[in-house]
């Protein structure tokens, strides 16, 4: 039984037990149970709300700003959800990890994007979000003269997950529409304020106190590769090869290519040294590669023992054996294969520089670039790094069983300003990931750059997204879903083995490892509060957005010459609410049911 089923079974058992206790009158009146949710009510604390609500002019101005923001978000949410629903109906996408049922539950360890390791930070952020949200409703209730029946906490079974304020329904009916709208908007206003404060602290002194540690961060080693056999695994940092310091993947590749020795000395974390016995393996492959080889994830790699009749054990030996030949005959553990040698292009962007020269978006192999022999993706990238935008170069490509040379006028690479082909390049040679080492890099610098820090030479994708604070917020919100959105591993925060890839200094250096805890708390507090605010702005009852929609609709309809305004209001709000519900269901389940 998987984790989700265990959780559901626990919820059902708790709900049945609570229903039994309530039926027998064992539960006190101030404890109410609805399924796995338990609320504990109290009338204490109302005097505190009255004291907090004393500066009424401030709270009204504060909530008026929040109401305006909420109305804009409500309209934007409505348009976006309806648009997405129409797109899904017209062209259903393939389901992704996001569409799995467990990933709609904000439960660490159950949700694939919320690891158990950050459960305390997520729970803290959720508690803060719910307290300030309900506290906002309570304070504005008293500001607008609305009585508060009770206050309390909300439990998910026995876990506290938030707080609530219960305004009097009779007082709400007597209050004017403006007062009620401000009261309904107060919760999301506070959530957005917490988000801004948390992100400001995170992007400022906290991230400014974190830098990337020396070496190449390792997210893992390919199964059966030399690095795997030597015990190198996720969480390690490769800091030197044969005594040569390395800080980037390019430096690591260069150090390995510089020697054809069968065994190399590898320094890890600047502290310990291991010996890696090299052999040339195919650790990965792209579909449709000319060798017709397939390497499944997690399975042992295919071994390459000879190239053009010459025994090889390293990539340097591979390139030496290939020489100037356009083709290579490989002796592998899966049999003999003959392939054209070059950098494999998986996709050519339409209207990009290479497309303009070849007229195709289909995969092809680049075997020569600007007069340089190209045998791998590394060689092509290095050649591109030596070019400039608008430069015209000769590119030899292999497609449809033959070689041809085209003249390409390069564009500008948005990440580094160098020449740009407008292609996706598969790592390795001719659609095969050939390696004599076998580690997979963790993009530590990229994540730090995406959070507004200094990612150094490893910034990569992060440098391309660097920009305004709003852009930083947008990208940060995507980090827990990075594998789906950005094509890199998900980033849950500075936890576990990931901490080994960073070091602390700067203004908060005196906190030591505590900086990582502060960063995680701020990150998840901001993330969850923004999610709460946006979700509650959806214009559907019983969310705050639905309640604001009702009061706003009443205000408009009251000025129209209609005989039955209540029916008109109900028709409008119910129609919008049902449209929102249908759109949400399509967004969540549409890809699985229709894709």
From TrEMBL:
Pfam families associated with the record: PDZ_6, Peptidase_M50
The residues that cross the membrane are 6-23, 65-86, 113-132, 183-204, 472-492, 504-527, 572-594
Extract one GO molecular function annotation from the record.
Answer: metalloendopeptidase activity
InterPro entries for the chain:
MBTPS2 (IPR001193), PDZ (IPR001478), PDZ_6 (IPR041489), PDZ_sf (IPR036034), Peptidase_M50 (IPR008915)
Pinpoint the PDZ domain residues: 204-272
What is the top EC class of this enzyme, as a single word?
Answer: hydrolase
Q: Which SUPFAM superfamilies match?
A: PDZ domain-like
Protein name per Swiss-Prot or TrEMBL: M50 family metalloprotease
């Amino acid at each position: 039984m998987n984790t989700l089923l265990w959780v559901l079974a626990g919820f059902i058992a708790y709900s049945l037990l609570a229903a039994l206790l309530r039926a027998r009158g064992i539960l006190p009146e101030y404890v109410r149970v609805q399924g796995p949710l338990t609320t504990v009510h109290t009338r204490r604390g109302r005097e505190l709300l009255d004291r907090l609500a004393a500066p009424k002019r401030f709270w009204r101005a504060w909530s008026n700003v929040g109401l305006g923001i909420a109305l804009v978000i409500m309209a934007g949410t409505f348009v976006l959800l309806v648009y997405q629903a129409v797109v899904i109906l017209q062209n259903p996408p393939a389901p992704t990890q996001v569409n799995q049922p467990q990933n709609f539950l904000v439960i660490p360890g159950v949700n694939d994007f919320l690891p158990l390791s950050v459960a305390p930070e997520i729970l803290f952020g959720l508690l803060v979000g719910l307290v300030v949200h309900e506290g906002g409703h309570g304070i504005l209730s008293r500001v607008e003269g609305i009585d508060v029946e009770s206050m309390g906490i909300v439990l998910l079974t026995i876990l506290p997950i938030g707080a609530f304020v219960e305004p009097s329904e009779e007082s709400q009916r007597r209050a004017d529409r403006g007062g009620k709208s401000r009261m309904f908007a107060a919760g999301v206003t506070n959530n957005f304020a917490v988000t801004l404060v948390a992100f400001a602290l995170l992007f400022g002194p906290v991230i400014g106190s974190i830098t990337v540690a020396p070496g190449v961060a390792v997210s893992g080693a390919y199964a059966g590769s030399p690095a795997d056999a030597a015990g190198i695994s996720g969480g390690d940092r490769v800091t030197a090869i044969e005594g040569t310091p390395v800080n980037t993947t390019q430096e690591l590749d260069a150090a390995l290519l510089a020697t054809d020795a069968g065994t190399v000395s590898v320094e890890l974390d600047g502290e310990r040294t291991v010996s890696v016995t090299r052999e040339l393996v195919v650790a990965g492959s792209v579909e449709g590669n000319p060798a017709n080889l397939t390497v499944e994830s997690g399975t042992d790699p295919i071994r390459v023992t000879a190239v053009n009749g010459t025994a090889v054990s390293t990539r340097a030996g591979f390139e030496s054996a290939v020489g100037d030949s356009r083709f290579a005959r490989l002796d592998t553990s899966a049999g003999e294969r003959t392939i054209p040698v070059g950098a494999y292009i998986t996709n050519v962007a339409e209207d990009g520089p290479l497309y303009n020269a070849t007229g195709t978006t289909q995969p092809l192999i680049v075997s020569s670039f600007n007069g340089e022999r190209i045998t791998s993706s590394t060689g092509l990238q290095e050649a591109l790094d030596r070019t400039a935008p608008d430069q015209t170069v000769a590119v030899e490509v292999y497609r449809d069983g033959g070689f041809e040379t085209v003249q390409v006028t390069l564009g500008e690479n948005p990440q580094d300003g160098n020449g740009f082909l407008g292609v996706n390049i598969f790592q390795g040679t001719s659609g095969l990931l050939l390696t004599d080492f076998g580690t997979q890099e963790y993009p530590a610098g990229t994540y730090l750059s995406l959070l507004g820090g200094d990612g150094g030479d490893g910034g990569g994708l992060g440098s391309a997204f660097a920009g305004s604070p709003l852009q930083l917020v947008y990208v940060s919100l995507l980090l827990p879903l990075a594998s789906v959105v950005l094509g890199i591993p998900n980033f849950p925060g500075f936890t576990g083995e990931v901490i080994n890839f960073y070091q602390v200094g700067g203004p908060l250096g005196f906190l030591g490892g505590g900086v990582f805890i502060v960063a995680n708390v701020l990150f998840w507090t901001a993330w969850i509060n923004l999610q709460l605010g946006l979700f509650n702005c959806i214009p559907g009852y019983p969310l705050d957005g639905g309640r604001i929609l009702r009061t706003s609709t009443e205000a408009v309809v009251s000025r129209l010459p209609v005989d039955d305004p209540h029916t008109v209001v109900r028709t409008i709000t119910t129609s919008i609410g049902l449209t929102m519900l249908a759109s949400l269901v399509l967004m969540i389940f549409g890809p699985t049911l229709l894709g």
